[in-house]
Amino acid sequence: MEQKVVSVQELQALWQRVPTTPVVISPLEMRTKIEGFRGHIRRRNVKELITWLIAGVPLCWIGSWPISLLWHVSCAVLLLGCAFAAVSLFRRSGPLVRDAPPAAALVQFHRAQLEHERDMLRGMWRWYVLPVMPGIALVAYAAGRFIWARLPHMTVILGGCCLFLAAALVTLWTIVVQLTWAARLQRRIEDLDRYREA
Amino acid sequence: MTSIPYSATEPLPQEQLYVRAAEQFGAALERLACGYERDTDRRRDLLQEIHLELWRSLAAFEFRASLRTWVYRIAHNVAAKHIWREQRARLGQMLDLEAAAEAPIADATAGLEEAQVLQRLLAEIHRLVPLDRQVMLLYLDELDAATIGEITGLSAGAVATKIHRIKTLLARRLGAKE
Fold this sequence. Notes:
The complex is a heterodimer. Chain A has one domain (38-197). Chain A is 78% helix and 0% strand. Chain A has helices at 8-16, 27-63, 69-92, 106-129, 133-148, 153-197. The two termini of chain A are 39 Å apart. By secondary structure, chain B is an all-alpha fold. Chain B is built from eight helices and no strands. The radius of gyration of chain B is 18 Å and the shape is globular. At the A-B interface, α1, α2, α4 and α6 of A face α1, α2, α3, α5 and α6 of B.
């Protein structure tokens, strides 16, 4: 280790001398690892299903409260919306890259990654936010009607307005953030196209 | 591609290919993992992930590309995904070749021992954005411009520009003469 590096070629040679312990995994070991990986995916899917059930059960319970028929219908619509959003999220959040084959050229691979994420962000409001909106609106209406009969009307109106405003702001903010990120990714895709030909 | 049934006594071509690839490019894959991950344990994980993906992908290998191109593409793509997943927050702090060459230098490299130069070189590599890092690692592996273009998908002109910038970076930051 006394030699001094003076040229690019020597740096390349130095890089070639990086201490390594070549790894060769036996086919049997490889199969075991792949089985382990599949097991990991199965466990992840089961965990997501359990999480969804845990989230869905309280909503079913709340929906069973004997308030009104509208209340039951509203909760059912909200439950369906949540189920749709959960299934959509599950379907879309699989492998990060779907289009690029694993041996794609590096630029093509990067581009596919960016495109996948951009498209997911651009369309998220349609399949993640929008499906739960009718359910939320119906539940709010049914709850409002129920409370209207029991509390001073001004309190109900003010409370309802505040809740509506807060929900609208959160939804808008979420959509704006997603679209901003999507625009940023689009700029990176354009940079990448320039990079390929630079 | 014709599928070949598995037999316990006769290894699949996929497995033969994998063993060949691992023997031929094992050291290169380990250097590549060094260029992507500083932490020793995570580097071993990354290397295992690369080998796993390589093994899986070789089922679709059709000899249209050279085995070397295939192995490098798989390895770099897995490593890029690793960066994407693990260091997403840090991507904004990474530099391209030009910016990295212009960055202020802490001290001169003249008189440094090989191990120290290697540390400095690794530090420079880890600062680069993924695509520039890939070109840099391929260049350090002494691949020619045409092969780098084939692996990365960059045009010949773009590869030439990148190599020029890499040389500038190495000269400015590590005092390497062309």
